[in-house]
Amino acid sequence: MKTGTTERTAPADRQAAALTVEDLSVHYGGVCAVRSIGFTVAPGQSVGIIGANGAGKTSTLKALMGLVPRSGGRIRFGDTDLTRVKARDIVRHGIGYVPEGRHVFPGLTVEKNLMLGAYARSWRGPGTRETLEEVYDLFPVLGEMRSRLAGALSGGQQQMLAVGRALMAKPRLMLLDEPSMGLSPKLIEDILAVLVRLREEGLSMLLVEQNAKLTFEATSSCVVMENGEVAMTGTSRELRDDVQVRRIYLGL
Question: Name one GO molecular function term (predicted).
C-alpha cells in the first residue's frame, strides 16, 4: 500500500473541520504534565505527537477528550468550543477516540462492541449497518469473528476492534493513543496500512505513538513534545531525518 503524504479532500459525510489547540495545560496536583501547548490539525490532515515517555502525549489526548481536567487553554473543533463540552458529548461533535490499552468490553461480542461505538447514532438505522459493513471491510477478521466474545480475541484483534468501534460513530477526526502498543511487527504493519487508508480517505487524525516508523509513515506532520511542552514541529519527513529528533527524543 502506498504511504505517501498527500492528503485527500474529505468526503461529504466528513464535513471539514479543524482542531485548534491554544495554550492547553494539564496539572495533576502540583505536577504540570502539559504546559501551554498549541497546535492545529487541519481538515483531512494527519498529525503525530512524538516524544519520550512522560513527555505529556497521552495527557494531551485525554485533555482533548475531557477525560482529565484542563488547567488552562482553549480547544476548538470547527465552530465548537470543546472546552465547554462534557466528555460524554464530545463524540457527538465528530471526534473518535482510540484509548491506550484498547479497553474493549470482554464479555460482549465483537459486533456488540462495535455497535456500542454507534451509541450517538440510531442503532437500527440503515446508515449504522452500512458503517458496520465498512468496518468489516476494513478489518475482515472482525467480520469473521463478529459473534465471538471480545475477551477471546488476540491483542492485535482487540486493537482492530478498538479502532473499528471508534469508526462506528463516523468521526471527522480520530484521536489514537499508542495503537501499536504490544503488537507484533506484522500486526503493526497491518495497523499502519489501515491508518494510511483512512488518511487517504480524508479522515483527520491525531496520533500519539512510540513507534517512530509508524508515526512518520502514517502522518504528514508531527509535534515533538518534551517535559510537557512543544519542543519542535515540522513535516514528518523533515523530523524523520532530523538527527537531533532521532537522538534526543526518539532514542534512535
Answer: branched-chain amino acid transmembrane transporter activity
Q: Which three cell numbers mark 182? A: 504490544
What is the topology classification, in CATH, of domain 17-94+171-178+201-252? Rossmann fold (3.40.50)
What is this structure's pTM?
A: 0.88
Tens of each residue's pLDDT in the chain, 252 residues = 333 333 434 444 445 679 999 999 999 998 999 999 999 999 999 999 998 888 999 999 999 999 999 999 999 999 999 998 999 899 999 999 999 988 999 999 999 999 999 987 755 566 888 999 999 999 999 999 999 999 999 999 999 999 999 999 999 999 999 999 888 899 999 999 999 999 999 999 999 988 888 999 999 999 999 999 999 999 999 999 988 887 766 666
Please report how many Cα atoms fall inside a 13 Å half-sphere around the Cα of residue 177, on the Cβ side: 19
